[in-house]
Amino acid sequence: MKVHNFSAGPCILPQVVFDKMAEACLNFNNSGTSILEISHRRKDAVEVMDTARALVKELMNVPETHDVLFMQGGASLQFPTVAYNLLKEGGKAAYLDSGKWAANAIKEAKRFGEINVVASSKEDNYNYVPKGYEIPTDVDYFHCTSNNTIFGTQMKEFPTTNVPVVCDMSSDILSKHVDVSKFGVIYAGAQKNMGPAGSAVAIVQKDLLGKTGRNIPDYLNYATHIAKESSFNTWPVIAIYGVMLNLQWLKEQGGVDAIAKINTAKAEAMYAEIDRNGLFTGTANVEDRSQMNATFVLNNEDVKAEFDAMLKEAGVVSLAGHRDVGGYRASMYNALPLESVKVLVEVMKQFEQKFG
Ligand SMILES: *Cc1c(COP(=O)(O)O)cnc(C)c1O
C-alpha cells in the first residue's frame, strides 16, 4: 500500500532520491565502493558538494555577495553560530519570538550579548506571527523565523530595515521565491525541505563577517567554510548527496516558482477542508497560516480513535501534531504530492459523514 507521509521532519523526499541513495550505498558511481566508505576528498565526492552548492545558488538566485555553505549540527548549531559571527563584543541584536525554534535561537544568542526581543506571540501559544514591531537601528542584526514548523504559522513578508536580516528558513526554504539579497544570513537544517538529516545550509553575506572582535572557533567561523569551500573537515557525503539529488529533482520540476504553485494548491486544498468541515478547527491565525505545516484539532476528542483508524486505513502517516499544540499537523513539503493532500481531505470528508 502506498503511504502518504505528512511527517514534519525528517520528511518525505522524492522517490528518485531514495532510489539513487540506495544505489550509491551499494556502488557509488560504478566505482565498486559504497558512498559510505569513501573520502570526502575523492573527486566524485567533491563534485557532490560543488553541485549541491551550485544548485542552491541557481535555484535561489543567490547573488555574488553571498556564499552557500553546508555545515553540520543542524539548524540548532546555527543559532549560536550566527551570534558568534555577527554579534559584536558588547553588541546588541534584535529577535522576533514567533515560536519555539525562535525562542531557542534567542536563548543561544543571549550567551553572546544583549538580545532585544522586538515582539512575541508566546502568550497565545504562538498561534500568530507578531507584526507592527519596530527594529532598533543600533543592533548588529535582526533575527526571524520564516516558518514556525510546530505552530503552523509563516511570515508572509519580511520587515524592511537597515540592519542585516538573519532568517531561520529551516522549514520553508526552497518552497517559494525569496529575494536572498535582502538577507544577511539565511540558514536551514536540511531535513525539512532540502534533503535527509545530517547537514545545514547557510547562505552568508560575505562582507558582514570578521567584524565582531571575537575569537571564533574555526568550525563555527563562517569564514573558515567559505575559504575551504565547505570542505574544512569530514562532511557526510551521503547526506549532501541526498540534498544534491533533491535539488536536481526540484530543478527538473521547474524550480522554486513551479513548486511554489503546487505548494499553494496543496495548502489551499488542505485549509479549505479544515474550514469547511465542522469536525475540525485550524489552530493558527488565518492570515498567518503556513503553506508547509497545517495545524488543526478535532472539536470532539471523543472520536479521535475513530479518525486515527480511518487515517491508518487510508495510509496517511505521521499526522500527529507536536505535543505543544496537540491535534494534527499536515506537513506539505515540496516532495509531498497534491494527491496525498487529496487523500487526507477525502478521509476528513468521510469522517464527517460518519460522525458529523
Ligand atoms: C526543525 C527546526 C529547527 C531545528 O533543526 P535541527 O536541524 O534539528 O537543529 C530549527 N528551526 C526550525 C524553524 C525548525 O523547523
From TrEMBL:
Pfam families: Aminotran_5 (PF00266). Pathway: Amino-acid biosynthesis; L-serine biosynthesis; L-serine from 3-phospho-D-glycerate: step 2/3; Cofactor biosynthesis; pyridoxine 5'-phosphate biosynthesis; pyridoxine 5'-phosphate from D-erythrose 4-phosphate: step 3/5. It catalyses: O-phospho-L-serine + 2-oxoglutarate = 3-phosphooxypyruvate + L-glutamate; 4-(phosphooxy)-L-threonine + 2-oxoglutarate = (R)-3-hydroxy-2-oxo-4-phosphooxybutanoate + L-glutamate. L-glutamate binds at residue 41. Pyridoxal 5'-phosphate binds at residues 75-76, 101, 149, 168, 191, 233-234. One of its GO terms (molecular function) is pyridoxal phosphate binding. The modification N6-(pyridoxal phosphate)lysine is found at residue 192. PROSITE patterns: AA_TRANSFER_CLASS_5 (PS00595). Residues 4-343 form the Aminotransferase class V domain. It is found in: Cytoplasm. Keywords: Amino-acid biosynthesis, Aminotransferase, Cytoplasm, Pyridoxal phosphate, Pyridoxine biosynthesis, Serine biosynthesis, Transferase. InterPro entries: Aminotrans_V_dom (IPR000192), Aminotrans_V_PyrdxlP_BS (IPR020578), Pser_aminoTfrase (IPR022278), PyrdxlP-dep_Trfase (IPR015424), PyrdxlP-dep_Trfase_major (IPR015421), PyrdxlP-dep_Trfase_small (IPR015422). Its EC number is 2.6.1.52. It is an enzyme of class 2 (transferase). The keyword Plastid does not apply. GO terms for cellular component: cytoplasm. Binds 1 pyridoxal phosphate per subunit. GO terms for biological process: L-serine biosynthetic process; pyridoxine biosynthetic process. Belongs to the class-V pyridoxal-phosphate-dependent aminotransferase family. SerC subfamily. NCBIfam families: PRK05355.1. Catalyzes the reversible conversion of 3-phosphohydroxypyruvate to phosphoserine and of 3-hydroxy-2-oxo-4-phosphonooxybutanoate to phosphohydroxythreonine. Homodimer. This is Phosphoserine aminotransferase. It comes from Faecalibacter macacae. The lineage of its organism: Bacteria, Pseudomonadati, Bacteroidota, Flavobacteriia, Flavobacteriales. The gene is serC.
